[in-house]
Design goal:
The complex is a heterodimer. Chain A is an alpha+beta fold. In chain A, 50% of the residues lie in helices and 20% in strands. Chain A has 10 helices and 14 strands. In chain A, the strands form 4 sheets. Chain A has a 5-stranded antiparallel beta sheet with strand order 4-3-7-6-5. In chain A, helix 8 crosses helix 9 and helix 9 runs antiparallel to helix 10. The longest helix of chain A is centred in the first third of the chain and has 49 residues. Chain A is rod-shaped and about 165 Å long. Chain B has 2 domains: 188 residues, D-Maltodextrin-Binding Protein, domain 2, CATH 3.40.190; 151 residues, Periplasmic binding protein-like II (D-Maltodextrin-Binding Protein, domain 2). Chain B is 47% helix and 16% strand. In chain B, the strands form 2 sheets. In chain B, strands 1, 2, 3, 4, 5, 6 and 13 form a 7-stranded mixed beta sheet that branches. In chain B, helix 7 runs parallel beside helix 10 and helix 10 crosses helix 16. Chain B starts with a helix and ends in a 9-residue tail after the last helix. The N terminus of chain B is likely disordered. The chains are: A alpha+beta, B alpha/beta. At the A-B interface, helix 3 and strand 4 of A face helix 16 of B.
């Protein structure tokens, strides 16, 4: 149900095939319209040209039959003149002959005259035997006319005789339709074929994607190797992205696995101790029981600290992987961390000092805060056996902010300073601690592009420094 | 084809329904299907009677006219906008073609119309419904032992050989007064190189000129004429079948065939009735009645019998040349062409009357 509604509210994006066919179809449609317009003009001209030849042939054969008798134009209308126009079988035929006197010698007297502009005033310059054509409405139909002039120079009848032959346009229109169909039908066929090819070609073109999908679907849950299917160049960005994603996923899983192993390992030892203490308490007398309870209380406190650390470790690991980035002020974060630590350990003695008023930067404030807290815990636990004050300061050195936490404790021998950053290691002292702290701090700080440094204080004790780039991400 | 024709029937039916209120109203005022025809009523009555069986609701007014007057009367009425005929049936194919060409005709399209041979229809507006070979007819008794001339050239030599035998005893159409005669003689002039010589020879033996086939046949049967030239075969056959001593010859060189042509005027007052009647006339049933009862040769090739086209073809002696409906027929209607042609014709037919000088 809920799946249904999501599908409705977010429509599936249009399929590639539909996009391709749609775009191509639109382009083809426009092309077809352009072609239609062109072919229309062309076919009309072609149809007119072929039938105009018949029309002028008819006019010519009538003109050739002209003679003058008693000063009058005589037409011996040749049978062929009208018969040849039967090439257009259903078209009606009209004709007339106009003498030099402007009177109709024979034929249809009411034929429309040639429109002005192509008039007879310029006719003298025209060569004889060349017909002119025009369209006009006559007796309720559109008629194509040819007009042909012939010069007569008889003593009593001199001048131009005009032969006008007309024919309705049915055959021309039929030929024009035929020409248009002949041109457009194959084109339409090609267009449809193209669309069909694209429709089915999409499957072929997208086959590598299907192969990649098959390979991924066939893999086990932890097979995070790069994709082996060979793919065309166009698809390598996708496989590259998938491969990168898989690498990150593999790293995450490694981290998680390690964390679980660490947690199990760390919890097993104190639990075993607790059980041993409890057994002693159950089996022994009241005094033993009281001692056992005290030991159990101590060990429980240690375990709860350890759990805190594991959780903070998990948080740091997670956040370092996720890489949150927001703007914050480093000084605020350091203050907060100090206050939270002081709330937990009431008898601590911490001095804060900062050389700058504001230290704006970008990054994950929680990670930085946890790191500061961790170092402060370490300092309070190992670095102040005589309740000496711990001093925390924030300063700027070149491109870096430096948060330093200085104690008055015994310090860490130089040869061990790198080693203490490993997980589950601890200094030589036998003070209780889980050994996760410095490792967490290093991961958090390096994920911000910074570093953690341990060095001796000028007056003894240890100084732990967090160095963070000011233009941090 | 079958589906199309049934579609057309549906269409026609729809047309009738659509026009029903109009026809009801006019039927009340005595509306009639008016036919102008060049076929005499006696010949055509069986067709009208048979149609009356199919459509008893349609009253028909049949007006028999000669081809020229029919054309003139229709044109006059059409130009004045007066009430005119719903259907024109004329043997003057050229005049019918001219009516179509000049835009006076309505189209009649149907499977039956399309079944006509191509020469018998033009634009779906001029439709030939008969097929009538043009024959030479001899009086067998008067001819005696002389072999009947079987072609124009044989007739020409016969006339040359024995002018006194033929003098005043050969008859043909008066091309000047008969439109059918004019059509036939112009077609002869177009088809035959030697036709001028034949005209000349006929003129020299005092050819008799008549306005119609029936008049020539009367005189042939009565023994006043030996030969008739360019007669309508259907009439001659009917007369011979009635017992007249007539011999029909389909000329060997070529045999013209004319077709009575139907045109429905665009301005027909009662067009749906005209279409319905014409459809009947072109149908197998109408053609059958035309052939068997009216003794006119049917145009549809499906019709069998001595008066049918197939019957003519079976006994055919000459080459049949049907006159085709089309704009070619307009040529001899041209004013100047007609005047020139008739001038030549007159001069050939009556050499004595007209001085040879221009």
């Amino acid at each position: 149900m809920s799946q249904n509604t999501t599908r409705e509210s977010r429509p599936e994006p249009l399929s590639l095939r539909l996009r391709l066919v749609g775009t191509l179809g639109a382009v083809l449609l426009i092309a077809m319209f352009a072609l239609y317009a062109g072919v229309r003009v062309y076919s009309e001209e072609a149809a007119d040209r072929s039938y105009d030849r018949l029309l002028s042939g008819a006019a010519l054969s009538i003109a050739e039959s002209l003679s003058v008798s008693h000063g009058k134009i005589q037409t011996d209308l040749p049978y062929a003149a009208l018969e040849m126009l039967s090439a257009a079988p259903d078209d009606r035929v009209f004709y007339r002959v106009i003498g030099p006197d402007g009177l109709v010698a024979t034929g249809y007297e009411d034929l429309p005259a040639e429109p002005a502009g192509s008039g007879k005033s310029v006719s003298v310059s025209r060569r004889a035997g060349e017909a002119r054509f025009f369209d006009a409405d006559y007796r309720g139909a559109e008629v194509r006319f040819a007009v042909l002039g012939r010069q007569i120079s008889e003593p009593n009848a001199a001048g131009w005789v005009w032969v006008q032959v007309g024919q309705t346009r049915l055959a021309r229109e039929a030929l024009q339709r035929e020409l248009m169909l002949g041109a457009l039908v194959p084109l339409g066929f090609v267009a449809i074929l193209t669309l069909v090819l694209v429709w089915f070609g999409t499957d072929r073109a997208l086959r590598p994607l299907k192969l990649i999908g098959d390979e991924l679907a066939g893999r086990g849950a932890v097979e995070l190797d790069p994709i082996r299917t060979p793919v065309p160049r166009e698809i390598t960005p996708l496989t590259g992205a998938i491969d990168g994603f898989m690498t990150r996923l593999a790293g995450n899983m490694d981290t998680l696995r390690m964390f679980i192993a660490e947690a199990a390992h760390q919890l097993r030892t104190p639990l075993a101790a607790l059980r041993a203490q409890a057994e002693i308490g159950v089996d022994g007398n009241a005094e033993d029981a009281h001692r056992s309870l005290a030991a159990i209380e101590r060990n429980s406190a240690k375990m709860s600290r350890l759990l805190d650390q594991l959780l903070s470790h998990a948080t740091v690991l997670h956040r370092a992987d996720v890489q949150n980035s927001e703007a914050f002020d480093l000084i605020d974060i350091v203050h907060e961390a100090v206050h939270e630590t002081l709330n937990l350990i009431s008898d601590a003695n911490v001095e804060i000092d900062h050389a700058v008023d504001a230290a704006p930067m970008k990054g994950d404030p929680v990670l930085i805060g946890e790191s500061v807290k961790n170092l402060l815990h370490n300092a309070l636990r190992y670095g102040c056996p005589n309740k000496d004050p711990i001093s925390v300061s924030v300063g700027i050195e070149g491109p870096e902010y430096v948060v330093s936490i200085a104690d008055r404790g015994p310090g860490i021998p130089v040869e061990q300073r790198e080693w203490v950053f490993e997980r589950f290691t601890r200094g030589t002292q036998s003070t209780p601690g889980a050994g996760l702290g410095l490792n967490i701090v290093r991961r958090a700080v390096t994920s911000h592009g910074g570093s953690v440094v341990l060095r001796d204080g000028p007056a003894g004790g240890l100084i732990a420094e967090i160095r963070l780039p000011r233009a941090s991400q | 084809m079958k589906r199309r024709s049934s579609m057309l029937l549906l269409l026609l039916a729809a047309l009738f329904v659509a026009c029903a209120p109009q026809s009801d109203e006019t039927n009340a005022t005595g509306r009639r299907l008016v036919i102008y025809s060049t076929t005499d009523l006696e010949s055509f009555q069986p067709v009208l009677d048979d149609y009356k069986l199919l459509r008893p609701d349609v009253d028909i007014e049949y007006v028999a006219l000669d081809a020229g007057p029919l054309y003139d009367r229709f044109l006059d009425e059409a130009r004045r906008g007066a009430a005119t005929a719903d259907l024109l049936l004329s043997s003057a194919m050229d005049l019918q073609v001219k009516l179509v060409n000049d835009g006076f005709a309505a189209s009649h399209d149907s499977a039956n119309a399309r079944a006509l041979p191509s020469w018998a229809r033009w634009r779906g507006q001029a439709l030939g419904f008969t097929f009538e070979p043009v024959v030479m007819v001899y009086n067998k008794r008067l001819l005696g032992i002389r072999p009947p001339p079987r072609s124009r050239s044989e007739l020409l030599s016969a006339l040359k050989r024995e002018p006194e035998f033929w003098r005043g005893r050969i008859g043909t159409y008066d091309a000047e007064h008969s439109n059918a005669g004019y059509l036939l003689v112009t077609q002869d002039a177009r088809q035959s190189e030697t036709f001028g010589a034949l005209l000349q020879a006929m003129g020299e033996v005092d050819v008799q000129k008549f306005d119609n086939t029936a008049a020539i046949l009367d005189r042939l049967a009565a023994g006043q004429l030996v030969a008739g030239y360019n007669l309508l075969g259907s009439y001659a056959r009917a007369r011979a079948d009635q017992g007249a001593p007539l011999l029909l010859v389909y000329p060997d060189d070529y045999t013209l065939a004319v077709s009575r042509t139907a045109v429905i005027p665009a301005a027909a007052p009662y067009p749906q009735a005209a279409h319905s009647f014409l459809e009947y006339l072109l149908s197998i049933r109408g053609q059958q009645v035309l052939t068997t009862r009216s003794k006119l040769n049917a145009v549809r090739q499906e019709i069998q019998g001595p008066y049918a086209q197939s019957g003519v073809f079976n006994r055919e002696l000459g080459t049949i040349r049907p006159i085709a409906l089309g704009p070619g027929l307009l040529v001899y209607l041209d004013q100047q062409k007609r005047a020139r042609f008739l001038d030549t014709w007159r001069r050939a037919m009556s050499p004595a009357d007209i001085p040879t000088a221009q």
